[in-house]
From TrEMBL:
InterPro entries: RA_dom (IPR000159), SARAH_dom (IPR011524), Strictosidine_synth_cons-reg (IPR018119)
Span of domain SARAH: 200-247
SMART domains reported in the protein's UniProt record: RA (SM00314)
Organism: Solea senegalensis (Senegalese sole)
Designated name of the protein: Adipocyte plasma membrane-associated protein-like
N-terminal signal peptide: none
Coiled coil: none
Entries under PANTHER family matching the protein: ADIPOCYTE PLASMA MEMBRANE-ASSOCIATED PROTEIN, STRICTOSIDINE SYNTHASE-RELATED
Keywords recorded for this protein, A-Z: Glycoprotein, Membrane, Signal, Transmembrane, Transmembrane helix
Domain of life where this protein originates: Eukaryota
Length: 664
């Protein structure tokens, strides 16, 4: 989030009569006694926080702050007197939040879930931004639909080995507090919590009999809740039994239940003519059927995380003949940086021969011509857990599309954090456009492909979904929604424009040599589009390739004037149709699979097969490169050629495959 307010940089101090509640490690939750005089040094410290500084004093404080900071999150003073910097806010929400989901039936769906407690988010703000604006930005970052008035920002600090938490007024400026306190998180940190509803109970004001009476009331309410739950489950158990035995009032009448009824009745008739041991076996069989039916009913009622719609593909996958014929052209390569680069997804290079890429742990790297590896920066927080699980990606960052602009700055599309400009020499990052800002009032959830016009400097990028983040990409593919967008960003005017919407997981993009059009991969439906930027067709799209042999990822220009398409997953027809082809027309099957199958299990369905498509400038297929056994690599995300070498990207593998020569 970047704020661009042009108001004056005056500091709004704490209200003298504002109510504050202090929570310490040594005391209970008591109201701060009014009028109580604290120690002299505390009073002086509070008075310092309420002081307005001159421009020169602010400049000295910023210089001192930048000397103390250790995480490169420095402050900058503008000519107008407004200064900008970073604050970290810890999320400490005890209740579930309501977030915007996808669209269904023309209306925006909302879902409730718990945000992980203890997660810290870094925001880039100015000295003009208030507490209320910071809260709104944090909620927008997580697409929270709740009223911002439900939340409050607290400052947490230490004095004499005690931890204090104090609610901030809506008009205060957090960056001023950060500047005065310095960069040390122990001195001052910010916490987002729910608003306190009602007065703080002063339990010491009650007598022992009154407190015991409260406990009796709580015990009674707990017992009533327990009895209500038992009653509800007993009622459902009776309805299941009614359904099995065909009693009136049954709410289940599916063919499966009818079959179970017949089975039970047959078992009942036979049980009258058999010995006690066989009767016991019959009863065990019946109990098992009841359990199975109960489990099936429970799974049916369990909400599904996805809302798919039927989708009919254009036809079966094409045959592996002609330009698609199987070959071994990807065998002649080698692996670099095994165990050092984890998921190098996309590439770009400068005129000195340096190649740049981003990995799954949120890091940006430079590969020198002598194949030495240098870390440039960490896109998000540099945590030890980065790269160990997709759950840490929103904190660590995940750079996808990378390109160099005309000034030699590395433009990065981070899936979770937004669009950045990175100095490749110092690693300094500048946020151009955050995911929470989005476009047309809709935040970004999954920034992906990227390309830059060499003629105008315009940045083109894709937001693969406004619903799912990168860590849930398998749900995105399974759901098969059309919530993706093609977006442009003008670095000069800061203008954001949606060029195309309602796309099926838009992924890689590439400008044509004349920049009169760009190609765009719709991964989840196996399709490539052409979007015209110039000429009589400007602003329109057309299908270049459909019903592809696999699901396309990035598209790049080759060094010999063609387009190279990395296929992340092939779509072969063997004994059975491809898995996604089979379930595409059946939303109920997709909902069920999303409920019961862990996301990691879908990796078992992915073949270890590498495939690259080569297209002419007209979009016609002119050749392919295969690695049928996955000897060199598989699941190719990018095909980048530079100085005679071809770099093959991927999203998960722990090495970088390269081809030293290109076989025609």
């Amino acid at each position: 989030m970047t704020w661009t307010s042009t108001m004056s940089s005056g500091y709004s101090s704490l209200e003298e009569d504002s109510e504050e509640f202090f929570f310490t490690a040594r005391t209970s939750f008591f109201r701060k006694p009014p009028g109580k005089v604290t120690e002299k040094k505390d009073v002086e410290k509070e008075r310092e926080l309420r002081t307005e500084f001159s421009r020169e004093e602010i400049r000295h404080k910023i210089e001192h702050y930048n000397c103390l900071t250790k995480d490169h999150l420095k402050m900058t003073l503008a000519q107008s007197g407004v200064y900008t910097g970073f604050i970290k806010v810890q999320m400490d929400l005890r209740r579930p939040v309501t977030v915007h989901g996808g669209q269904r039936g023309g209306t925006v769906q909302k879902e409730a879930f718990y945000l992980p407690r203890g997660v810290s988010n870094t925001l880039h703000i100015s000295s003009n931004n208030t507490v209320r604006e910071v809260i709104v930005a944090l909620l927008n970052k997580f697409t929270v639909a709740d009223n911002p008035a439900k939340y409050a920002l607290y400052k947490r600090y230490r004095r004499e080995e005690q931890a204090y938490v104090c609610k901030l007024a809506d008009g205060e400026q957090p960056l001023f507090l950060r500047l005065v306190s310095g960069p040390d998180a122990d001195t001052l940190s910010f916490v987002l919590r729910e608003q306190q509803t009602g007065e703080v109970i002063m339990w010491d004001a009650f007598s022992i009999p009154e407190l015991r009476n409260f406990l009796r009331i709580l015990d009674k309410e707990e017992e009533e809740q327990r009895e209500a739950i038992i009653c509800r489950y007993n009622s459902y158990r009776h309805r299941l039994q009614d359904a099995l035995w065909g009693r009136p009032g049954s709410v289940l009448s599916s063919p499966d239940v009818i079959a179970l009824q017949l089975c039970f009745r047959q078992c009942s008739v036979k049980s009258r003519r058999t010995n006690p041991r066989r009767l016991s076996n019959m009863l065990s069989c019946g109990s098992l059927l009841v359990v199975l039916l109960a489990v099936s009913a429970g799974l049916y009622m369990l909400p599904s995380p996805i809302h798919p719609r039927p989708h009919i593909l254009k036809g079966p996958p094409p045959e592996l003949v002609g330009p698609l014929a199987v070959n071994n052209r990807l065998h002649n390569g080698r692996r670099l940086f095994s165990g050092e680069l984890h998921g190098p997804e996309s590439f770009t290079a400068d005129e000195n021969g340096h190649v740049y890429t981003g990995t799954v742990d949120g890091k940006l790297w430079r590969i020198s011509p002598d194949d030495s590896l240098t870390l440039i920066t960490q896109m998000g927080q540099n945590l030890p857990e980065c790269g160990s699980s997709p759950d840490y990606e929103p904190l660590c960052g995940r750079p996808h599309g990378v390109r160099l602009d005309a000034d030699g700055q590395l433009i990065v599309a981070d899936s979770y954090l937004g669009l950045f400009s990175v100095d490749v020499k110092t690693g300094a990052k500048k946020l151009l456009l955050s995911n929470s800002e989005g476009a047309d009032g809709v935040p970004f959830s999954f920034l992906n492909g990227l390309d830059i016009s060499s003629q105008t400097g315009m940045i083109y990028f894709t937001d693969s979904s406004s619903r799912w983040g990168r860590r849930h990409v398998k749900l995105e593919v399974l759901e098969l929604n059309s919530l993706g967008r093609l977006v442009s960003f003008d670095p000069q005017t800061q203008k954001v424009k949606v060029l195309l919407d309602s796309l099926f997981m838009p992924n890689g993009i590439v400008l044509s040599p004349d920049e009169d059009f760009l190609l765009l991969a719709e991964t989840s439906v196996g399709r490539v589009l052409r979007f015209w930027l110039k000429g009589p067709k400007a602003g329109t799209k057309e299908v270049v390739m459909d019903n592809m042999i696999g699901y396309p990822d990035n598209i790049r220009l080759s060094d010999h004037g063609t387009f190279l398409v990395g296929i992340t997953t092939p779509r072969f027809r063997r004994f059975l149709p491809p898995f996604l082809d089979m379930i595409a027309p059946y939303p109920a099957v997709k909902r069920f699979l999303a409920k019961v199958i862990p996301l990691t299990w879908y990796n078992l369905l992915l073949p270890r097969y590498a495939l690259v498509l080569e297209l002419g400038l007209d979009g016609e297929l002119v050749g392919t490169l295969h690695d049928p056994e996955g000897r060199l690599t598989w699941a190719i995300s990018d095909v980048f050629q530079h100085r005679g070498r071809t770099y093959l990207g991927n999203t998960e593998l722990s090495f970088l495959p390269v081809l030293e020569r290109w076989e025609n």
